[in-house]
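Input.
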Amino acid sequence: MLLLWTLLSAVVLGGCTTSVADTPDAVTPGSVSTAPTASAPPTTSTPTSTSSAATTTPTTPPEPTSTPATTPTTPTTSTTSSATTTSTTSSATSSTTASWPASLVALGDSVPAADTCDCTGFVERLGPQLQAATHRAWSVHNDAVSGYTSGDVLDDLQDPDVQRDLSTADLVVVQVGANDLDLDQVGDPDCDPVATSDCYTQTLDQLEGTLGRIVDGIRSLDQRPDLQIALLGYWNVTVDGQVAAAQGSAFVKASVALTEATNAVLSDVADRSGSIYVDTRTPFDGASGTRDATDDLLDDGDHPDGSGHALIATAVMQALQRSGAVDDWTQS
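Output.
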């Protein structure tokens, strides 16, 4: 009997233990005080995982953030001309290098146009020389036309294409005036002396006025204070070298006098307008005026050949360097 009671008690108590053991899982509120301890690891694990995800999430944004930062660089390089890339490369080696291309525009007659010789003209030579000197890329726009007078250049300032070129120019070189003159009168005794002769004084006065309006017109189209305008003189407004010598000493004397008078006008306009005057006579004829320029001229004795254009380009670069313009372009 005692044994039977003991067995029954064990069965009853065992069922209660199972029921109690099941209760915490079945009754969530009842497990609050004890479950936290048992559930702490999962609870702690979940925040830890969440915290880890949160830590990773901030790490991910910097990657997208760095991608946009890099993305603009790629389009800029791909859409920019190779000239700009050259400037950018140069800037890596010099703290004073500009990061965008500069622009050169040429106006004038057959000398800057350079279409009378099978050679590279001085305007086209200036582009690479300016790039080397300023460590920035240069675009070149040659709007000079053979046969142009100063009046033609002035009229060209109304041309939309020329206006577009001039509106962004850093340097404008102008060489014009020889075609304004009646060169058939050179050497005529009635036109001597040239400086006071009625054959040329009126023409030279008109040239002076027109050149002034050309400079003003250029500045009205490009009003940036760092714009530089270079007015180029002539080594001779007519033929030179052996071609001139063949026409006699009177012709040579008159041509030199007319050239000096024309260059004086160009120089005066440059001084008054804040432009740069470029002496091209000395490179061709020497400081004393006795150098034979034949080897630097075409067979016509009038237009420069390749070596002549090289002389002009050098003269322009030297004038720009003396004026400080090259340094300004390098530092801007």
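The two ends are 115 Å apart (CA to CA).
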